[in-house]
Design a protein that fits this description.
- The chain is of the alpha/beta class and 623 residues long.
- Helix content is 44%, strand content 11%.
- The chain contains 27 helices and 18 strands.
- The strands form five sheets. It has a seven-stranded mixed sheet with strand order 9-8-7-10-11-12-15, sandwiched between helices.
- Strand 5 (281-284), helix 14 (289-299) and strand 6 (305-307) form a beta-alpha-beta unit.
- The radius of gyration is 25 Å and the shape is globular.
- The protein starts with a helix and ends with a strand.
């Protein structure tokens, strides 16, 4: 039981700050955001308010608000509830899904994206309500895999600006440019330079679509207030020849900056956003491998930032690897015994390797000897084959995982051995794909995996979008066998194995982690995002599924549970920030008070600081 005097002290502190609801019927502590249900002051009326997606309610404006905001006569007379509005929109959407096309080149899911985007343009509250209530159906539309198609076509799809664009031509002006954004407070920025969008390569300025999609999930999953998010594109040029020649392209038509010139642009951007919004969190997204690690190491100890491709992907993959151990009926402490073949040595692949190695080392005693021992559990294959110390040039980030020549010779392998040979000789427990090469796990490779020493081998084709997946679940189950564990980066349907049996297709989706990492960091007040916080997030996800689910081969949850998953991940991140003495508190809860909260109280604190799509009462006030 919580000490009564301590409880009373925190209770009084919260009442003093006006952050506790004394009217709660069950007497439980209730933390609220600054937004709460209080009226919102606006400085516009009439058609201006109807054209503002942040405040527009459409037909849901009450008659009182219509009079107060000079809207009477500008809307049909019947006042609709938000539920009625959604019913109308969904009926429209289902009809338009069948008819909306720009021509034969416009894929079906891009048509869905266009319809949802139009709603986003005119009514943000309703947009997020639709997204949250249909998250399993529409997450693949606003995020991967459809967002990849959207980015490829973005110059043609562009209708209304969303987010900010900083370019190489803006050097020296970024500190003043950030004040052009209207929000006084920004909690979350997702930034990309468009150099490596999903597995589609350099899409230049069109890559802003991925930043917009990620932030939609921060709102829907983590409850970050949509008025406090900012998608950002840093346009330093493009090396995509097609875009350089395209008259319709919206970005700078020049080759990418490199070296110190490139770094100076990113430096100036970071200084500018953290000068205006010192408490903002910046997520780096889809930067090419050559810069992803360098920028992460450059900024992670001085700014509140992380790289989702490196750290988020690593966390989700690590959760899957730990889940695979559980699915074999073994304790997670057996993880350091797993033999893992990794196809792909880019930023995502190396991020997964580093995270898995650290986890193994921690389980083995967290010593230098344990760290070195953990290295021997990985075999890394890139475009040139198996990476060994006999290779003439090895990327510095991949070098720690290069196999010793005498080790490989004992296994009958040589430098540059192909993936099928490596799988055949190693007989791994896990085959992990982060290569962005569709179909890489060929029939030959999958046939080789049938000889795995594991009773239940795991196959993780994690590359996005769908066309880049190393194999399909149907291929994996039909070739390797029905007893495998399968997890992919893009969504696939479960496989019917006959006789009522199901081959479960787990989606190893970064959205299971990054919203909770962001929310937990925000609410903890930590000024950095530590390895421990990321590890806590991954282990939380790994433990989320029940034993019964895991033994059935279900190692990741359904996206329909994303709000609950995000809450649990955020709680784990906050707890770790407290343990590491990084937590400084958030708004009404200072560091000392946060440290005194029980786990249930932290969970209440998290859930009550998550934005929900409800129309506020609007009050007009003249500037």
């Amino acid at each position: 039981m919580v000490n009564f005097s301590r409880q009373l002290g925190i209770w009084k502190a919260l009442l003093k700050r006006g952050s506790l609801n004394p009217a709660a019927s069950n007497g439980a502590r209730c933390f609220t955001t600054m937004d709460g249900q209080r009226p919102t002051i606006v400085h516009k009326r009439s058609l201006d308010i109807l054209h503002d997606p942040w405040f527009n309610k459409g037909t849901a404006f009450s008659m009182t608000e219509r009079d107060r905001l000079h809207l009477r006569g500008l809307l049909p007379p019947n006042v609709m509830t938000s539920e009625q509005q959604i019913l109308r929109f969904m009926a429209d959407l289902k009809r338009l899904e069948r008819t909306a096309r720009d021509g034969p080149a416009d894929p079906y899911n891009v048509a869905k994206w266009r319809i949802l985007n139009r709603l986003h343009d005119r009514n943000e509250t309703m947009y997020y309500k639709v997204l949250m209530e249909n998250i399993e159906e529409y997450a693949p539309i606003v995020y991967t895999p459809t967002v990849g198609l959207v980015c490829q076509k973005y110059s043609g799809l562009f209708r209304r600006p969303r987010g900010m664009y900083f370019s190489a031509d803006d050097r020296g002006e970024m500190m003043s440019m950030v004040y052009n954004w209207p929000a006084e407070q920004v909690d979350m920025i997702v930034v990309t330079d468009g150099s490596r969008i999903l597995g589609l390569g350099d899409l230049g300025v069109q890559g802003i679509g991925i930043a917009i999609g990620k932030l939609d999930l921060y709102v829907a999953a983590a409850g970050i207030n949509p008025q406090r998010v900012l998608p950002v594109m840093i346009d330093v040029g493009t090396n995509n020849d097609a875009l350089l020649k395209d008259r319709m392209y919206l970005g700078l038509q020049q080759h990418r900056l490199d070296g110190d010139d490139y770094v100076s642009v990113i430096d100036e951007f970071m200084q500018a956003v953290f000068t205006r919004w010192p408490n903002v969190i910046v997520q780096f997204e889809d930067f090419q491998s050559k810069w992803a690690f360098k920028l992460l190491q450059r900024y992670r100890n001085i700014y509140r930032m992380f790289n989702d491709d490196v750290q988020g992907t690593a966390g989700v993959a690590l959760a899957g690897l730990l889940g695979a151990v559980r699915a074999q009926g073994r304790p997670m402490i057996d993880f350091p015994k797993m033999k893992i073949v990794v196809a792909g040595a880019g930023s995502a692949g190396i991020g997964v390797l580093n995270a898995a190695r650290k986890t193994m080392a921690r389980m083995l005693g967290d010593t230098e000897v344990a760290f070195e021992s953990a290295r021997s559990q990985f075999w890394v294959v890139d475009a040139n084959g198996l990476i060994t110390e006999g290779r003439e040039y090895i990327d510095p980030d991949a070098r720690p995982f290069a196999r010793k020549v005498n080790e490989t010779e004992r296994q009958g392998l040589t430098e540059g051995a192909n993936l099928a040979d490596v799988v055949r000789k190693v007989k791994p427990d896990v085959l992990l794909g982060l290569s962005a090469v569709g179909g890489l796990f060929s029939k030959e490779v999958l046939e080789a995996l049938k000889d795995s020493t594991s009773t239940r081998p795991a196959i993780f084709p994690m590359s996005n979008p769908t066309r880049n997946a190393e194999c399909t679940p149907k291929e994996a189950f039909s070739i390797v066998g029905e007893n495998i564990i399968f997890g992919s980066g893009s969504p696939f349907n479960n496989v019917d194995l006959g006789n009522g049996r199901v081959g479960h297709c787990n989606q190893a989706n970064n959205m299971f982690l990054f919203p909770g990492i962001g929310l937990g960091t925000l609410l903890s007040g930590s000024k950095v995002i530590s390895d421990g916080m990321l590890q806590a997030a991954a282990e939380c996800l790994a433990a989320y599924m029940t034993e019964e689910e895991v033994l059935q081969g279900i190692i990741y949850p359904s996206i329909s549970r994303i709000r609950d998953i995000t809450t649990e991940v955020a709680v784990a991140v906050i707890k770790e920030a407290i343990v590491e003495d990084l937590a400084e508190g958030h708004r009404e809860i200072d560091a000392g008070e946060l440290q005194k909260l029980s786990e249930d109280e932290i969970r209440t604190f998290v859930t009550n600081n998550m934005w929900r799509p409800q129309y506020p009462t609007l009050i007009y006030k003249q500037d």
